[in-house]
Amino acid sequence: MSPEAVGPVETIGQRVKELRARRGWTAAQLGKELGKHGVRWDRFAVANLETGKRKNVTVTELMALALALDVAPTHLLIPLDDRLYKITPTYFLPTLDAREWFRGNVPLYGMHGERARTYLSERPLADLEGRKPDFAELRTTLVPDPDNPDDPDRAVPLVSYSRGEPESGDSSADPADQEESRG
């Protein structure tokens, strides 16, 4: 028998608890990690989420949790197991369908004709062309910490995707990459 249906905030709470425990972090340590991403939570806020006392999570908080726990937001939002998922208090569907819908891959059951076309038309061109960045395209650049712009030791990583090699003399290329290629 599959587990009972859960909704987004309950799922986020369960997943945060699992991932925090896997890392051996206290609730206070997770709160400190969230602070690095601009979300000020203490151990009580973490505990309230994990125990279901907290009924809301902002999008900013979800993104900070995903960053702090090194996981895709989707994997905090939608359960990893096979069960019913409450997208809203009145709309349930299997987690696999919820994941595909959330990723923009498949319209919901019952979306036909114009509704399905509208859903599928709101995808990035790269998705429609089947382009996917691979890990070799990841480029990490250090940028000044917005809270300490004058301290080079407090630089933070900025991860972006590059599409192919820059042209020679391209000023937009990462200086470290240019230096490495010279030498």
Please characterize this protein's 3D structure.
By secondary structure, the chain is of the alpha+beta class. Helices cover 43% and strands 11% of the residues. The protein has nine helices and four strands, in the order αααααββαααββα. It has helices at residues 8-23, 27-35, 43-50, 59-69, 73-77, 95-102, 113-121, 125-128, 175-182; strands at 84-88, 91-94, 138-143, 156-161. Strands 1-2 form a two-stranded antiparallel ribbon. A two-stranded antiparallel ribbon has the order 3-4. Strand 1 and strand 2 form a beta hairpin. The chain starts with 7 loop residues before the first helix and ends with a helix. Residues 160-183 have low confidence and may be disordered.
Strands, helices and their partners?
Elements: H1 8-23, H2 27-35, H3 43-50, H4 59-69, H5 73-77, E1 84-88, E2 91-94, H6 95-102, H7 113-121, H8 125-128, E3 138-143, E4 156-161, H9 175-182
Antiparallel strand pairs: 1-2, 3-4
